Amino acid sequence: MSRLLLAFLFPFILYFSTWAQQGPVPPPPVIVPLTTDVNRRYVIEVEMANTTFPFALSLGTGYSLVAASDCTSCGSEKRYDVNSVPGSPAGSQVVTVLGSSASGAVMQENCSMVTHDRSLWHYPEHPMVVVNQSSGLVSFGISGLLGLGTNIRDGKFNLSALGGWLSSSIGFSNVSFGLLLNPPQKLSSDAGQLHWLAPDPSSYQGDVTWKNLITTTSLDSDWVFQMDSWVFNLTNNGSQSRSGGNMTTAVDPYNPNIIFPFDIAHSIHSSIDGAVLKTQTSMSSVWSIPCDSQMSLTITVGVHPYTLLEDKLIQSDGGSCTSAIEGWADSTNDAYLFGATFISSAYLCVPASSSILPMLTSS
Q1: Segments of the chain assigned to CATH 2.40.70.10
Q2: Mean pLDDT, residues 86-108 taken together
Q3: Scanning 102, 116, 149, 340, which has its CA 20 to 30 A from the CA of 59?
């Protein structure tokens, strides 16, 4: 299967582009298989301290985190034995992603990603936040987080996984990664792939859609851009849309669904016969909708439209159905969040050499 490519570039890594002119051939992709946990978060296996831990992926931060053995708020998965950490902490760090947070000491650890053939891809002396307090970020179903972001919010790109690899591999400024996600489901053993260090050319087709990343105070996330337009179409009951650009949007597979400003999400579901507000969490509001609803959501990024149909917008669970479009619990939040439901319709590519985000098309 191949997809349309969506690619993002980030301006603060421009200085790496001077290395690319005389640099060696980019490395081939490291294929890392993904599963999902009970919360539909995408998970890779990370080995360190002779133990394999389930880490969720997030674009919202560049930090990596692991639950400490003494963390009472980190869920019930495998914990990291703090007594096995060599050396002294290099300070402490608070990590926030879209309303969730975690904090702990920063330690250096020799880590490895488990690849598709069960071999290990090593990244030694990687900064790891050993979490002793978590407010939702490290929780039931995972032991930690692999941050695929840039740490643009505090300027510490060198502490991210990509930044650390680049700083120790002089000349490889064109390094990147690709995300090929299957739609988010609970406890899937085949949820897609992370293509580490380089995108997989067989996974996408057509032209690249590029978007600049921006910094904003309205969303605590590294990967934020301006969406150009969206159109929600309800068969036999009209459509709703927004255009003109300047719609602040985060993209992150850590969240499975799509979140709109509450008033827009409420208006969309008011047009669906039988839709009922189901639950309200501290983050978002969720609607129940009839399982036979017919609808589509087209999101335009740059000049390319990405269309999601009922198979992704309607989620079945034990005979009832919920909408993949949610509304922020904070009614003043006018930003958007595109989670894995959207990302699974594109091939997400992140190059660490200039300043834009690319997406590709699947087939």
Answers
A1: 13-197, 212-362
A2: 91
A3: 116
